[in-house]
TrEMBL record:
InterPro entries: Cyt_c7-like, Cyt_c_III, Multihaem_cyt_sf
Cofactor(s) needed: heme c
Binding site for heme c 4: C137
Cofactor notes: Binds 4 heme c groups covalently per monomer.
Name by which UniProt lists this protein: Cytochrome c3 family protein
Organism: Pyxidicoccus fallax
Binding site for heme c 1: H49, H52, C60, C63, H64, C81, C134, H138
Keywords: Heme, Iron, Metal-binding
MF (Gene Ontology): electron transfer activity; heme binding; metal ion binding
Residues given in the record as heme c 3 binding sites: H114
Keyword set includes Heme: yes
Domain Cytochrome c7-like: 45-92, 121-213
Record region (Disordered): 173-213
Superkingdom of the organism of origin: Bacteria
Length: 213
C-alpha cells in the first residue's frame, strides 16, 4: 500500500471514530441538542410566572435568592412557596403537590430549562449587580404561563452582548446591597457615609478565559 492509500485509510478510520463518538455523545443528552431555544418542558407543578412575576409583580429574587450574590440563581424550596400558599389557594391540586413536598421533606423535581454547557462558566451575581434585567437573557418571563428558553444563549450571542455593552460605554449603578452605615442613614435621615458609591462603566470581558476556566 502506498503512502497516499495509507493516509486515506487512516483518515477514513478517524472519521468513523469521530462519528461513533458523536453518536454516543448525542445519545447521552437528556434534553434537546444545540442551543435549546424554544425548549418549554412540562414541570411537576403548573407554576405560572405570568401570575407570580406578572400579575402580582413578585420580585424575581424572592424565589431566586442567589441571583444577586451567587453564581447560581437557585430554585426555591417548596417551603418558600408555602409562605403564601398556606393561606392562598391552599385547596388547589397544584398547591397540594407543593404541600406534600414539604410534608414528606422531598423536593420537587423541577425540570431545568436554561442549561449552559459544562465548559462554559456563568455567574448570575456579576450580571445582576451590573444592572442587567432578568428579561435580557430569560425573555419576558412575566408573561410566561410555562417557562420557555427564548434566547439561543450561544457563545456568539453572549459575546455580541459583551461587545455591544463595552462599545456603548454603558453606565451601571452600584450593587444594591448597602455598605455599612448606609442603612442607618436611610432610616434616620443622617448623612450617608463618604465616599458615596459611584456608577461605573461596564467593561464585560471577551477573552476566552473569562468563560472557559
Amino acid at each position: 500500500m502506498n503512502d497516499a492509500s495509507t493516509r486515506t485509510s487512516r483518515s477514513a478510520r478517524a472519521t468513523g471514530w469521530m462519528g461513533a463518538l458523536s453518536a454516543l455523545a448525542l445519545a447521552g443528552c437528556s434534553g434537546p441538542v444545540n442551543n435549546q431555544q424554544g425548549y418549554m418542558p412540562e414541570q411537576p407543578v403548573a407554576f405560572s410566572h405570568a401570575v407570580h412575576a406578572g400579575q402580582y409583580e413578585l420580585d424575581c429574587q424572592y424565589c431566586h435568592v442567589g441571583a444577586e450574590k451567587s453564581r447560581h440563581a437557585g430554585v426555591p424550596s417548596s417551603s418558600v412557596c408555602m409562605n403564601c400558599h398556606t393561606q392562598v389557594k391552599k385547596d388547589s391540586p397544584e398547591i397540594q403537590k407543593v404541600a406534600a413536598s414539604v410534608a414528606e421533606n422531598k423536593p420537587l423535581e423541577w425540570v431545568r430549562v436554561h442549561r449552559l454547557p459544562d465548559h462554559a462558566y456563568f455567574n448570575h451575581a456579576s450580571h445582576v449587580t451590573s444592572g442587567l434585567k432578568c428579561q435580557t437573557c430569560h425573555g419576558p418571563v412575566q408573561e410566561m404561563v410555562r417557562l420557555e428558553q427564548v434566547e439561543p444563549m450561544t457563545m456568539g450571542w453572549c459575546l455580541d452582548c459583551h461587545r455591544e455593552t463595552a462599545a456603548a460605554q454603558v453606565s451601571a449603578l452600584p450593587p444594591s446591597a448597602p455598605r455599612s452605615g448606609e442603612l442607618l442613614a436611610m432610616s434616620t435621615g443622617a448623612p450617608p457615609p463618604a465616599p458615596l458609591k459611584e456608577p461605573r462603566i461596564l467593561q464585560p470581558p471577551t477573552d476566552c478565559s473569562s468563560c472557559h476556566r
